[in-house]
Amino acid sequence: MGTFDNETNQEVYKIKEKLKEQGISVDDAYEPHITFGIYTGVDEESLLRWVENVTKQHKKIQICFNHFGFFTDARLCFIAPSSNYDLLGLHSEIHEKYDSCCMDKGCLYSLEQNNWTPHMTIALVDQGQEESVLSILWKNFSPFTAELTRLKITSSDTSDDLGVFEL
């Protein structure tokens, strides 16, 4: 996952707080992030070395979160950045070696499936809450620039950080 500078995190926490105040369940399992992939059947040490090498080739990335939306099949609300070459290049390079191991979650992150939507999940929306969520976001969301500062490898079983690599 790609994580952000403190300023970005505070901006995201403000949005989530507005949602919480209205009884919307927010995604607090991890710090604000963009998921680059979910891998299964991978040698952990090899993956950590690969991601460490990838981060050495990249600088911090400026991205603009400029819209929000829903994944209707999963009842998730997200904010999303406009795509840029640096973000897409980082995603592509991460997957260069391990794309075939990115088959969980319906291949949402795989290069092969060409289906990745860079996003940050902010809320888990119950049926009937969609209009409330949209109203809150219309009133409280303004586009903002974020700085992607590091990549983290976490365990999907325990949410523990397995490796943290600065860009």
Q: Give the mean pLDDT.
A: 88
Provide the CATH superfamily. Cyclic phosphodiesterase
Order of helices and strands: EHEEHEEHEHEE
Low-confidence stretches: none
Overall structural class, as computed from helix and strand content, comes to: alpha+beta
The total of beta strands comes to 8
**Distinct helical segment count:** 4
Strand residue percentage? 25-35%
Structure summary:
With 167 residues, the chain is α+β, with helices and mostly antiparallel strands.
General description of the model:
The protein has 167 residues and is α+β, with helices and mostly antiparallel strands. It has a single domain, classed as Cyclic Phosphodiesterase, Chain: A (Alpha-Beta Complex), CATH 3.90.1140. The chain has four helices and eight strands. Strands 1, 2, 3, 4, 5, 6, 7 and 8 form an eight-stranded antiparallel beta sheet that branches. Helix 2 runs antiparallel to helix 3.
Which descriptors would you attach to this protein?
167 residues; alpha+beta; Cyclic Phosphodiesterase, Chain: A; eight-stranded antiparallel beta sheet; 4 helices
Any chance you could write out the topology, listing elements then pairs?
Blueprint: E1 2-4, H1 6-21, E2 25-26, E3 33-34, H2 44-56, E4 61-71, E5 76-81, H3 85-98, E6 120-124, H4 130-140, E7 144-154, E8 161-166
Antiparallel strand pairs: 1-3, 1-7, 2-6, 4-5, 4-7, 5-6, 7-8
